[in-house]
Design brief:
TIM Barrel; Urease, subunit C, domain 1; globular; 8-stranded parallel beta sheet; 441 residues; binds zinc ion; hydrolase; MTA/SAH_deaminase; alpha/beta; 9-stranded mixed beta sheet; Metal_Hydrolase
Length: 441
C-alpha cells in the first residue's frame, strides 16, 4: 500500500526545491509524488499516512568514496602524510582476511546509515562483493568493487588481478538483481598500477558496462613521481592511456593544473572529493570551485576511518566550504547549496546513478533521510539549508528510508540486530591476526 509522509519540510535537492508543509508519496521502492500537502493528488487521499511532526526530509546522502573494510583500524595511524601513512598502515592490513573485511564493512555501513548516508561507493583490494553483501543485508544502496594494483609497485602488495575481475563478475550474478547494488572495476592509482594493468582493467570495465574507479593526483609527490616517470601530470597521463571518460570516478584530484581541469571537462569524468581525508593526510585542498565551474561533476566522500576518522557527510559538507574559504580568503567562493548539491544529486551524477537517486522527484527511488531540525526562529528554506550544512550531524538523523523501506528509525535498524552483530564483531576482532599485528606494532 502506498505511504504518504506528511507534515514535513521537504528539501527535494533541486534548485529552489524547499516545500513547507510538504509531503512525499511512496509507492513500492519509488517516489510517486512530492509536493505541498494542499496540492495532494486525489489518488493519495486513501493511502497509509505517516506524520513526520514537522521534521525535515532530504534526499539520502551519497558517499562517493569509502573503504569500509578498513573500519576496524580506526585511529591506528593518525599521523603522517599520505605516503608515511600508507607505509605505517601496510603491516596492519597485510593479513586482512575476507572475514576482517566483512566485519569492517558491517561497521562502516551501520555508521553510514546512522549518519544519513543511503548510497556509498566502496573500495577494497580483495572481496569485491563483500560491501554489497553487507549493505544489502542492512538495506543500504552500494556501488562496490575492488581496486587492482601491481604488487611490485606497492608496499606489501599482493596480486589481486584478475582475481578482482572474477570476484566482481560473481558478485554481479549474486547481488545485482536485488535492486540495491551496482558494481565497478577499478585500479588503485597511476603510481601503483602499471599502464598495462590500467588499460586492461578499463577495457574489462567497458566490456561489462561498468564504471572505472581510480585514486588520482592525491598528493604532490604522486604528481612528481608520474612526471618523472611519464613526463606528464597524472591526469594527462591517464587521458593518453585512454582510461578517462564519463564512466570514470576519480577520487581526490587535489593536485590539478588548468590543463588537468580541461582534461576532466573534455572526458566527462567525475570527481570524488574527500576534504577531511585530504586535510588529515596533509594532501591539500582540491580545486573544487574550478572543477564545478568547468561543469565537472563533484561528489563528496568520506574515504576510510583510517584517514578521516568519521563516515559523516555532514562534516564533509561543512569542511568542503570552510576549507575553500580559508584557503582563498574569499567568503563567497562556495556556499551551503554547493555542499548540499555535492552530497546529493551531484554525487549521484559522479556515480552515474542520477536518473534513479540523488533528489526527491516522482519516479526516482525513495531514498530519503528525515532530520529532526528545529530552528529557534522557525524553519525557512535559508535556515534549513544553513542548518543541514553548518549545524546538523548524525544526532539529527531521525530515520532513513532506502528504496521505500525504513531501515533505520529512532536509533534502531529494522533489518538487523545491531547488538548481536557488534558483539560478533568484537569477538572476531579479539581473535583476528590483524589485531595481534596492531597490538604488536
Ligand atoms: Zn581511497
Amino acid at each position: 500500500m502506498p505511504t504518504l509522509l506528511h507534515n514535513a519540510f521537504v528539501c527535494t535537492g533541486l534548485a529552489g526545491g524547499f516545500i513547507e508543509n510538504g509531503a512525499v508519496l511512496i509507492e513500492g521502492t519509488k517516489i510517486a509524488w512530492v509536493g505541498s500537502l494542499s496540492t495532494l493528488p486525489p489518488q493519495a487521499a486513501t493511502t497509509k499516512r505517516k506524520d513526520l511532526g514537522g521534521r525535515v526530509v532530504i534526499p539520502g546522502l551519497i558517499n562517493t568514496h569509502a573503504h569500509g573494510g578498513l573500519s576496524m583500524h580506526r585511529g591506528c595511524c593518525d599521523d603522517g602524510d599520505l605516503f608515511q601513512w600508507a607505509s605505517a598502515l601496510a603491516p596492519h592490513t597485510a593479513s586482512l582476511t575476507i572475514e576482517d573485511n566483512r566485519a569492517g564493512c558491517t561497521l562502516a555501513v551501520m555508521e553510514m546509515v546512522r549518519n544519513g548516508i543511503t548510497t556509498a561507493c566502496d573500495c577494497t583490494r580483495y572481496g569485491a562483493g563483500v560491501f554489497a553483501s553487507v549493505a544489502s543485508e542492512i538495506g543500504m544502496r552500494s556501488l562496490s568493487g575492488a581496486l587492482a594494483n601491481s604488487p611490485e609497485l606497492r608496499p606489501n602488495g599482493r596480486p589481486n588481478w584478475p582475481l578482482a575481475l572474477d570476484e566482481t563478475k560473481e558478485a554481479i550474478q549474486v547481488y545485482q538483481g536485488n535492486g540495491l547494488c551496482r558494481f565497478y572495476l577499478g585500479g588503485h592509482s597511476p603510481y601503483s598500477c602499471t599502464p598495462q594493468l590500467l588499460t586492461e582493467v578499463k577495457r574489462e570495465a567497458d566490456a561489462l558496462g561498468l564504471h572505472f574507479v581510480l585514486h588520482v593526483a592525491e598528493n604532490r609527490r604522486e604528481n612528481e613521481m608520474i612526471l618523472a616517470q611519464y613526463g606528464k601530470s597524472p591526469l594527462a597521463w591517464l587521458a593518453e592511456l585512454g582510461v578517462l571518460d564519463r564512466r570514470s570516478i576519480l577520487a581526490h584530484c587535489v593536485w590539478l593544473d588548468e590543463k588537468d581541469v580541461d582534461i576532466l571537462a573534455d572526458t566527462g569524468a567525475g570527481v570524488a572529493h574527500n576534504p577531511a581525508s585530504n586535510a588529515k593526510l596533509a594532501s591539500g585542498i582540491a580545486p573544487v570551485p574550478a572543477l564545478r565551474r568547468g561543469g565537472i561533476p563533484v561528489g563528496l566522500g568520506t574515504d576510510s576511518t583510517l584517514s578521516n576518522n568519521c563516515l559523516d557527510l555532514f562534516q564533509e559538507m561543512k569542511l568542503s566550504v570552510l576549507l575553500q574559504r580559508a584557503a582563498s580568503l574569499d567568503g563567497m567562493i562556495m556556499g551551503a547549496s554547493d555542499a548540499f548539491t555535492m552530497a546529493t544529486i551531484e554525487g549521484a551524477r559522479v556515480l552515474g546513478w542520477e536518473a534513479e537517486i540523488g533528489s526527491l522527484e516522482a519516479g526516482k527511488e525513495a531514498d530519503l533521510v528525515v532530520l529532526s531540525l528545529d530552528h529557534p526562529l522557525g524553519l525557512t528554506a535559508e535556515r534549513v539549508l544553513s542548518d543541514i550544512v553548518y549545524h546538523a550531524g548524525p544526532q539529527h538523523v531521525h530515520s532513513v528510508m532506502i528504496a521505500g523501506r525504513t531501515i533505520f528509525e529512532g536509533g534502531c535498524f529494522s533489518m538487523i540486530d545491531e547488538a548481536e552483530i557488534r558483539s560478533a564483531i568484537h569477538k572476531h576482532y579479539q581473535t583476528s591476526e590483524m589485531n595481534k599485528e596492531t597490538s604488536d606494532a
